[in-house]
Write a structure and sequence with these properties.
The chain is α/β, with parallel strands linked by helices. The protein has 2 domains: 184 residues, FAD/NAD(P)-binding domain (3-Layer(bba) Sandwich); 140 residues, FAD/NAD(P)-binding domain, CATH 3.50.50. Helix content is 30%, strand content 27%. A hairpin with a 2-residue loop joins strand 21 and strand 22. Helix 5 packs antiparallel against helix 6. The radius of gyration is 22 Å and the shape is elongated. The C terminus is likely disordered.
Length: 372
Amino acid sequence: MVVIGAGYDGITAVLRLAKLLRGHADYQVHLVDRNLFLLLKTQLHEAAVLKTEVTIPIDRLIRNRNISFHLAEVSRIGPDERTVFLQSDSLPFEYLVAALGSQTNFYGIPGLQEHAFTLETLSGARHIHDHIARLCARASSEPDEARRIDLLRFVIGGGGLSGVEFAAEFADHSVHCTRNNHINLEEFEIILVEAGSRIMPNLAESLSTPVEKKLREKRVKVLTQTRILDQTADSVTLSPGGVVKTETLVWTGGIRITDLFRESGMKIGKLGRIMVDEYLRAESYPFIYAIGDDALAMNHFTGNPVPTAAQFALQQGRLVAENIFANVTGGKRRPYFPTVWGEVVSLGRHLAVGWRFLSQKRSPSSVSWGVF
């Protein structure tokens, strides 16, 4: 059994598999990842602003379990050979779980990939933190007011969960940046840009409205129905809005999946996600399962793809492990039906907007929500 990717979904799958197969000596569980740690991606906005610790060592998670860990990057997947190829090694498999996660999607916007900061990796978060600290220090000794204001203008591209949480956390941190560097807070500007008609478009409008209100109270300028056309080293062009002088664009506007799955011959859907059946098996390859961002799983109640969110990744990781165990032992597989627990949107220190389903059988508008 090989699991590629040690995110929320992959770790859940591998730990559950190891537990279920504990009494089956003929089977061994392998985990492949290019990092030595599980990255808590839902907390990356805190690492970017506050430099908080957002990793858990993999060896701590798999200690005393029948799991072999391979620190490597997957170079190719061979479904017909039932082999995962690494840089200098290969792993044959009876069952494969694809959990490699996603990458940033720049949508071909000129200059974005070269100049934007992203919130997908630990190194990216640390780069943002150090960049902000440098700009605050530079602004403190900049005598020209116009230049100082340009240095302290920060643009966030994408009004989804990641962009909103980063904007809120950063807005709180701006007080420390300005106070510690003797900067006028009025010169500090955070702009959140969203192409859609409102931020948090995956939430009902009754839920996204209070989020936007709280952001504005934190002095975040929210621009909806606004697109980023291009970026240079010291400017961003908006439509509408024109050229905005800034050295900082944090891009959270979309994801794409690695091309490895397409190149392997698997059937691929939107954003490069693997097309799966009701058991989360890759179409045409029943011995390959896909979970998390990698799986184009469908919600049979709504007919829409399941969102790329941690709560669904955790559910899928557990289910896939149990379905593989059912295959091994002659048990019955269970189809995937997503359970929506709700959502909590962090809005900085001591503040969050949360909602939860009152019943899985009710419509998405049947929720209980509040500000904490």
